[in-house]
Records
---
Amino acid sequence: MKNSCILPEIVAPAGNLEKLKFAVLYGADSVYFGGSEHNLRAQADNFSIDDINEGVCYCHDHDAKAIFLLNSFLHEKDISAAKRYINGVRAIPFDAVMISDPAMMTLIREAGMTCSVHLSTQMSTLNHLAVRFWHNAGISRIVLAREATIDDIRMIQENTDAELEVFVHGALCIAYSGRCLLSRHITGRDANQGDCAQDCRWRYSLVEESRPGEPLDIIEGRAGTEILSSKDLCLIERIGQYIDAGVRAFKIEGRMKSVYYAANTTRIYRDAVRTAGTAEFEKRLPFYREELDLVSHRPYTDNLFNEFNGKGFSSINYINKAMFLGYRASSDPRGVPMFKTFNPIYRGETVEAIFPINDSIRDGRFTVKDIIDAENNSVEMARPNAIYTIRFDPEMGDHAILRRRR
Ligand code: SF4
């Protein structure tokens, strides 16, 4: 594979403003996020209009693109509300809007929005004729169905001019392109309106009709039986193949995950895209693998749909090998770093810190020398969800994210 000068984009998840900023700082070329309506993550900490404006400005100040999600499907009753919502955001200078329902295309053009339009993976685009159809309809980038094979991607790329984006990392769905009625059937929460209850991740047992209340265990593993739950996608080892096939953008799933997840997955795929096809990639692959193992995930697969082997749905316990402790937020008036905490940090302990990968990998281990709370008291422990001034040895650099291995 040749390492081309125009590298494919890394499109990172931004579940809130904090995640957006860290994804950008850690190397995202684009971030995707949704507002309070019409995106397929009703449970996410979605952006207010002020957040959207701040997020778009932050992206543009850091040479990143802002992709706004308007990818829900509209019933007739939803059209007026969608028009109102689009009118409220139409003046914001998004770089692109992501849609699923063609009706959204009509509404955003009627509202006078001129930004690029991307098509969501929800539309199950798998072949060049479908890509051409959407491209002729004014869509510049197609996020292919997760079920698209490498051969499909190659054929599509050879026969169309549209930009192709694929999911490279994150949760997969047992339903075809995420179009699923399981959640609506069991809980009344509609996955196709962004309100999935993730029923496929629940634990199931077998009940004989005449013996209700006497469930029979189906033994899949120590954690229980989750026969419908898929492994997570991880294409780090195959990234060069996907670049060669013509992929122009790699999307990371996970708007509901942590700042640490958004930052670490982004920097690893950003660096892997840079080194793909070179000896450096092979040298760094163990580091890439280890870092992706240190973000929360289910067991990984790189071939769930491409080369189904019948084993893709077993052993789905969540793996959490590192605890996200906090990040460097700013400095106090004396220039000592201040940290926002997500889990306790103890004086005297040694923690790990990760940083954006620029010319080098600067990650390291740092010992907590002192913790000062908001009342200027020196304390033994920093509690979660607060801001503390913390002195480390050696001194902590900018943009640090702290973790503790379990
Ligand atoms: S219930 Fe599971 S399979 Fe269905 S949409 Fe939700 S995550 Fe996907």
---
Amino acid sequence: MIKEQGAAVKPFRSTEYELIVIGGGPAGLAAAYNAWQSGLRKILIVERDRELGGILNQCIHSGFGLEYYKEELTGPEYAGRFIRQLQGTAIEVLCETMALEITAGREVHITGKRAGYAILSAKSIVLATGCRERARGAVGIPGARPAGIITAGAAQRYVNMEGYMPGKRVLIVGSGDVGLIMARRMTLEGASVLACVEIMPRSGGLVRNIVQCLHDYNIPLLLSHTVTDIRGRKRVESAIVSEVDENQLVKPGTGQVFDCDTVLLSVGLIPENELAHAAGIVIDGQNVSTSAPGVFVCGNALHVHDIVDNVTLEAELAGSAAARYALAC
Ligand SMILES: Cc1cc2nc3c(=O)[nH]c(=O)nc-3n(C[C@H](O)[C@H](O)[C@H](O)COP(=O)(O)OP(=O)(O)OC[C@H]3O[C@@H](n4cnc5c(N)ncnc54)[C@H](O)[C@@H]3O)c2cc1C
């Protein structure tokens, strides 16, 4: 877990900024630092979590930075490099602070332990709020609703950051990278991972993750399969997995029972853009600029990235664009 907070110890002191970055993950960190290098001197990062680093804090596996640093780093190591860069700047950081609302006129409403409720203004804003996981409702998995059904990312945070083990006999639904990585992680922590179930005829995960997280641990990957029932009263007791045809329709009579106490869902990520949507700001999914002048977006908030190195490069573009805008105001 990253303890260094760079400028995080500096007190909150101003309501007017050249740039406010919302989200202190790799996108927000790179955007803020690039804006500093481009000449801005009044920059604030607002982060709702206890510390900077974003999703990388829970990604303790290696595989980050192969392109950007030409090195293989863990998630916290990758984020740590950017956090350390902030120490040489006067960029302000407010952790445990949530941005509740933004306006097209570049006001940012925040709330948190240190700032209370405050309305800040900025010449430019970078939205770097990351993404969220699709949950059971989004894929319509039928069955009971007992405890033990959680997203793979939530399980990753429980295991790697909070020190909780979410279950002992695990079924993974969806073969995206988060699910694959959690199949290995749960195995290493002593759980039995019974299978990874994927409705499509191929996995959406990186080949390296299929090999290193499933094949190396003899975890079956059931392609063209889906969960057709979850059973259990208080806790998950079993799940039924059935084969599907090329139209993703369940083939009758193919159901197999998996005795599991936990179902981990890895069924897609969605950019976290509620602040922009509520303000009527349009994000096109490709460009770091938005429909609101001076409001920029980058990282998984713009579109979901597989590789963090690409997040960094895109965030640097957003940071320099935000700096150009603020300096011209
Ligand atoms: C499980 C997993 C494994 C991965 N493995 C790899 C890998 O092996 N190699 C690789 O290169 N990439 C990997 N990635 C991808 C990479 O981690 C992401 O692409 C990258 O972290 C995205 O950065 P981000 O800053 O856009 O989002 P995030 O890291 O999610 O950061 C967004 C931040 O915004 C904050 N935030 C959101 N809303 C608000 C708000 N309203 N107010 C204040 N703060 C807010 C959040 O708390 C969070 O800290 C993995 C991703 C996951 C999920």
